[in-house]
Amino acid sequence: MPGTTFDVAILSDFRYPGGTSASIAAEVHAQAEAALSTVLVHVPSPHQPRVLPFSPRISELLRDGVATLARDDEPVSCKLLLVRQPRIFTEDLATLPRITAERTVMVINQAPGDVGNPFRYYDFAAVRDRVHRYFGDTVEWAPISSQVRDQVRQVVPDARLAPDDWHEIIDVAHWWRDRDGFVGDVPVIGRHGRGDPVKWPIDPAEIRQAYPVTGDVRVRVLGGGEIAVERLGEKPDNWDVVRFGAEEPEEFLRTIDFFVYFHDPDLVEAFGRTILEAMASGVPVIIGEHFRPTFADAALYGTPADVPRLVAELYADPARYRAVVSRAREFAERRYGHQSHLARLADFGIRSRISPAAPAVPGSLKQRRVLMVSDNGAGMGHISRLMAIGRRLPGDMSAVIATQSYGASVAHQEGFLTEYIPSRKVLDAGLARWTAVLRARLAHLIELHEPSVVAVDCLPHPGIVEAVRDHPEIVWVWVRRAMWQRGVGADWITEGKVFDHVLEPGEFAAIADEGPTVADRASAFQVAPITFLDESELLDREAAKRELDLDDRPAVLLQLGAGNINDIASPIARICTHLSGHGFQLVLAESTIATRPMPRVPGAKVVKIYPVSRYLRAFDLTISAAGYNSFHEQIGFAIPTVFLPNTATRLDDQRGRARFAAATGVALTVEDPASAELEEALDQAVRPEVRAGLAHRCRELGFGNGGAAAAGWLSGLPANTWRMA
Fold it and tell me: Which SUPFAM superfamilies match (predicted)?
């Protein structure tokens, strides 16, 4: 370890049995998946008994080699030092670790006190003074939630806190379990966590309301149940009390239908990690209203008295139950998935170093394969989504891209084994002939590559439907993008029932979706919006400008699509004239599958690169169509944008998507570029304060990348789900 500079060092007391260790483990695993190095620096907390061993979660990290434990007698060098648990510094340290860090963040993962005593656990000002004395006054203080932030402000109003919370993260793919109905004949209510009196309501009547003692429900408690039993004076017959650690939380959550959590009214819960774990596992949660800032609309809120009614309503309405589960699962991935952690590390200059999978060793187990079939499409949307998932599959699984798109060469360049299927348009074939060709081609590819899963990102054409019926031994997944035009495509939904599963890439504008997929959404596995790159993979501004040979003037990127449906040339000259008059450098992105050349504009640079999103930080503004890929890249990466929706698409509701972006303040929109509306929008976009406002709003409404969650879910299907022949 001497001479090694780690990406991240985490300093804490690793004996904590609950959320602190779970949070550390989650971050270490996310860092390991991105090929980032982590060193753990153990500092005993004065309020912890000396005889406690390391948490099993921490021991597992060290045993598996995903983190290194620092030795007491060796210095540590790192790019980022994360310090967790302020209570370590309630007394002077006996020995100060020798750590050199470029940046240091103190994660405030516990409030200083509670409602009754704001100083119950530690004196924030005293802890701050010690931390600054040990690590310097440039330490950044990041609360774990808005609740902790408010508590700190209460005791030290002038505390300098980071603008963003250092929120918890979770690997949703690890926790998620497909559920086939309810656990038993009556609803099963449960909760898990370490045993602590403040984790339970004080009033026995509230305990009986939240965790009924009647025979029409069952109650399972993992950890701390003895506290509730003592307050009740007896153990109810319908309660199953399991000691903390006797079952793994992942397995415990499979045995309950509802997660219910209420606690001492004086407790300021720092975050609520067990709530997040339940959401990620597919269990609806019922919690107090004070958790809403953390979990938004992903939970059900009420008082203990509301629990019996909420449980009965959902138990009687399986469709609503599934909708609540899907919403919570998507929220957990989007807000608290691994990619959210990698994105914040990128803000500290620590970027993913994902390595390609090692080549297969002769004689080793055969890799599982996913055959990914894409439509030709007007742009790169279908094939990009599949590649985004394929590049994130685990090491024992590989993707074969079979596409009708002109972008087959792009998939090959990105390192995928690629098969080209000529489209019906290319063959100029009638429907009957095309159906036979597609069916036969898929049969050949299945025989050749022996996939365990076939993922189809296109409409269920007759040739595909027949191929599904020809091969019932394979798991078939329809990767079905939402946001269809209103009143279009209902027949496709019916045809799509032939698939075993539906995977739905998330849609930022989902609330504005009026298409036919909305009614069928509860049956789909939903993830956050899928983009080819994670934010951490984007070049920084200077590197991107250097690669594109741009100078220090503001730069604008025009990417109005492939030009295969609508005429993209007509507004370009006006846009370029207007923006060059305001001192902007002009870059025109030519699609890799465009069938018409990009119009040449004097003074404008034309680039033909994939993925162009890698260079987005070079630009102060983009003018873009509102297709799925560019829409979510520009909003997700907080690039100020003027959307010109393509209204000539047959299925994709670009207008609805762009209108929603304008309504939420994340972008400007021009629906009629032939009118003066175009120049009016450009006049706004050239103003720095307008662009700054758009970028700020994008960050406020940001979302993660669902590619990893989709890959994790897809990779688990062969082991868990087979169709009967």
Answer: UDP-Glycosyltransferase/glycogen phosphorylase (SSF53756)
| 22 Cβ neighbours under 8 A, 6+ residues apart | 57, 273
Q: What average pLDDT score do residues 417-422 get?
A: 87
Adjacent-strand bridge partners of 76: 99
Contacts of 97 (CB under 8 A, 6+ apart): 11, 41, 43, 70, 72, 76
Residues contacting residue 491 through CB under 8 Å, at least 6 positions apart: none
Contacts of 660 (CB under 8 A, 6+ apart): 508, 509, 511, 512
Per-domain residue ranges of the chain: 5-155, 172-334, 368-530+706-720, 539-700
Cβ neighbours of residue 51 closer than 8 Å, sequence gap 6 or more: none
Residue 525's closest CA among 504, 494, 497, 500? 504
Whether 5-155 shares its CATH topology with 172-334 is answered yes
pLDDT of residue 471: 95
Considering only CA atoms, give the Rg of the chain. 27
Element (H, E) at 384: helix 381-390
How would CATH label the architecture of 5-155? Answer: 3-Layer(aba) Sandwich (3.40)
Is there a contact between 249 and 222 (Cβ–Cβ < 8 Å)?
yes
How many whole angstroms separate alpha carbon 560 and alpha carbon 570?
A: 11
pLDDT digits (tens, 9 = 90+) for 278-325: 999 999 999 999 899 889 889 999 999 999 999 999 999 998 998 999
Query: Please, are residues 304 and 199 in contact by the beta-carbon 8 Å criterion?
Result: no
Neighbours of 554 (CB within 10 A): 16
Q: What distance in Å separates the CA atoms of residue 400 and residue 445, rounded to the nearest whole number? A: 9
Q: Is the peptide bond before 611 cis (omega within 30 degrees of 0)?
A: yes
Which helix (H) or strand (E) element contains residue 546? helix 541-548
Domain 539-700 has CATH 3.40.50.2000: yes
One-letter amino acid for residue 368 of the chain: R
CA gap 70, 81 in Å, rounded? 13
Collapsed DSSP state (helix, strand, coil) of residue 53: coil
Nearest alpha-carbon partner for 419 in 377, 383, 365, 459:
383
Give the tokens for residue 527: 């993830």
CATH fold of the domain at 172-334: Rossmann fold (3.40.50)
pLDDT digits (tens, 9 = 90+) for 542-554: 999 999 999 999 9
User: Please, what's the b/e burial string for 323-351 (b: 16 or more CB within 10 A of its CB; e: otherwise)?
Assistant: ebbbbbbbbbbbbbbbbbbbbbbbebebb
Highest mean pLDDT among 220-234, 353-367, 399-413: 220-234
Q: What values do phi and psi take at 310, rounded to 5?
A: -65, -40
* CATH entry 3.30.70.100 includes domain 368-530+706-720: no
> Under the phi-then-psi rule, with left for phi > 0, alpha for psi from -120 to 50, and beta for the rest, what region is 244?
beta
Q: Quote the Cα angle for 522-170-346, to 5°.
A: 115
Q: Report which DSSP code applies to 673.
A: T
What is the strand order of the sheet 68-69 is part of?
Answer: 68-69, 38-42, 5-12, 76-84, 99-108, 140-143
Which backbone phi and psi does 22 adopt, to 5 degrees? -60, -40
Residues 6+ apart with CB under 8 A from 460: 478, 492, 495, 496, 498, 499
| DSSP code at position 99 | E
Is 212:232 a contact under the CB 8 Å cutoff?
Answer: no
- Catalogue the E-assigned strands of 15-149: 38-42, 68-69, 76-84, 99-108, 140-143
Are the C-beta atoms of residues 162 and 146 closer than 8 Å to each other? no
> pTM of the entire structure?
0.53
Render pLDDT for 438-491 as a digit per residue (tens, 0 to 9). Answer: 999 999 999 999 999 999 998 999 999 999 999 999 999 999 999 999 999 999
Contacts of 389 (CB under 8 A, 6+ apart): 372, 399, 455, 479, 530, 707, 710, 711, 714
